[in-house]
Write the structure tokens for this entry.
Amino acid sequence: MREFHPPRRILLGPGPSDADPRVLAAMAGSLIGHLDPEFLRVMDDIQSSLRLLFQTQNRLTIPISATGSAGMEAAFVNLVEPGDTVAVCINGVFGERMADIVTRCGGVLLRIEADWGHSFDPDAIRSALKVLKTVPAKILAVVHAETSTGVLTPLDAIREVLDDFPETLLLVDCVTSLGGHPVEIDKHRVDFAYSGTQKCLSCPPGLSPITASIKAIDVLRGRKNKVQSWYLDLTMVEKYWGAERTYHHTAPISMNYALREALRLIEEEGLENRWGRHRQNHQALVAGIEALGLQMLVRPENRLWSLNTVRIPDGVNDAKVRSSLLQEFGIEIGGGLGPLKGKIWRVGLMGYSSNRNNVLLFLNALETILSQDGFRAQRGAAIDAAEKAYAAKA
Amino acid sequence: MREFHPPRRILLGPGPSDADPRVLAAMAGSLIGHLDPEFLRVMDDIQSSLRLLFQTQNRLTIPISATGSAGMEAAFVNLVEPGDTVAVCINGVFGERMADIVTRCGGVLLRIEADWGHSFDPDAIRSALKVLKTVPAKILAVVHAETSTGVLTPLDAIREVLDDFPETLLLVDCVTSLGGHPVEIDKHRVDFAYSGTQKCLSCPPGLSPITASIKAIDVLRGRKNKVQSWYLDLTMVEKYWGAERTYHHTAPISMNYALREALRLIEEEGLENRWGRHRQNHQALVAGIEALGLQMLVRPENRLWSLNTVRIPDGVNDAKVRSSLLQEFGIEIGGGLGPLKGKIWRVGLMGYSSNRNNVLLFLNALETILSQDGFRAQRGAAIDAAEKAYAAKA
């Protein structure tokens, strides 16, 4: 094997996004033991800073030692026992994945569906939950930011629905929103949330930040059976991250260095500024896309700032465009999944990747490639529209 | 939060061991997408090189995207279904952990125990398996290198026992042996093995290399129920790593860069040379320890080269010695666990950490600290004995 030198890329796909160079540098620090007093301080710093990021007071706020998908699994294996009813809002790949995991936990699944590319009607959720007459759903699970479709599901409306079902826990996937959109765990009284490091946190994939409310911890403590996963069993993991420091597994040291530095960068920028940056770059991108004569998949009020889904125009070859972007411009974007395969592009503007230069480079590259393909657009129109959007905000 | 600068440490505990600087540098490479053609080549390189390391032709030889403990969980959740009988050889923490996971999978546990610090009598294993008259055990699980005690359980004797039980799969934990001791998966007809990156591979914690035989894959394919873990479900994970490249989770990009470089270093050194290095440093350490008048916990033929367990002499304060080693010399070693807490030190000589300078530094530091504590040893005796061992081998 020869030495590997990663090619230069601009990561504008559904994740991973580009890591901040400071995060990469921190990750390369020499190792120390996972029970070293200095590493225990790193663990404490991460927990405090994650609470600020999640906007929560939840004591149990830690990174799970695996990627975002393991965070999803941790949520369900800890809270669901065989026979429990779990309502899952499904409008894309990640809602479907939640449903799959619920059944693997022996849960009774209540599917609440919306079309891919759309959010949910709160009344439809209320009606679905009301069908359960005797025992209410133990959990309502919702994907805040559907990475497969670019849809944001506002949490305030979901919270309002759940106020009619006080026994039901609110479980939220914020993999693609945390650090890019307001998540506000305590304000929305979210009982369990999980995210990933590789989206809006400017950090490589490998950890999954989670947070659990007291109500969720009470459910965990009151379980009849052991959690089916040893690795993700929060009754043990919380003691490893807590004052007890009880050995469980060996934390991925370098990834925790990386996360700590990513959190430090977020504190430096400030949450409001960071959300503003994600919103602004999203708006400029949309202005450029529309100036090209293309259409967004999602209606304006439900669009994610972090993940933009663009309808592929008729007659344009999806794979060829994405391959040209990668090979000629070093820009990665994502294709559609499931029913949206070949129908949309997924353009991530997350964390370090969410910046003006990337928006302009991408719009220019897309315009160039589409025009080679015979697609008609006025030269420079996309960049002009994006620049106008930036100027309007300035 | 201030910038974090890891203190200088020499990691001679039970793991993580020191990562090779080339591995740390590789890990800091800029990110590329997990479906990027260049990353698919990284994945292929890793699989080929892991096969050389495990000494196997097994197609399904990949790193699980989490630490070694998740590799253990992957082994059992994929192979065990409710009601299956699983025999677990238990002589330390990691055998106990296997037993815990088996019960979480609904398996019927057959415990085969040996005292902590000892290996197994093959006849005792044979007798235990023979108790199952009608249906043989589906799996016999054994820890090749017990990190909690420093005991090596030779695989050839276990294989010989299992030749009397052809239906039983052999499952091996080689977390602390892979890359430091011969493991030889195909020679011993091991059906499933898992390891970790943070021991003898000179790589940070975060991935768990696994390998599965055709017989194990047949069991996987013949399951009646879905694997209870979505994240570790090898029926899906194998398609992500295989020719299909079907999206499952997002691989931890940077950790895979690190593992690739660690495997490249192993190929450069050569497996035989690497085992020889681990053996030689172990022998020199033992010579020094014994010259100090201390005793090893494990009898010579079952000693791990990668993890040395030393009995703490009467009257010596365990915590004080380990704290002095860390604070005065920057050397981390481990304490005992469970019944061995306060009774042994665990001195790892793994991967990059396994070298002559570390052996000499540690022996000198231990001698200095013990003499401050009133423990009598002839000044320089330990280092002299270690140097003599090195000279004898040269």
Summary: The domain at 271-393 of chain B is CATH 3.90.1150.10 (Aspartate Aminotransferase, domain 1).
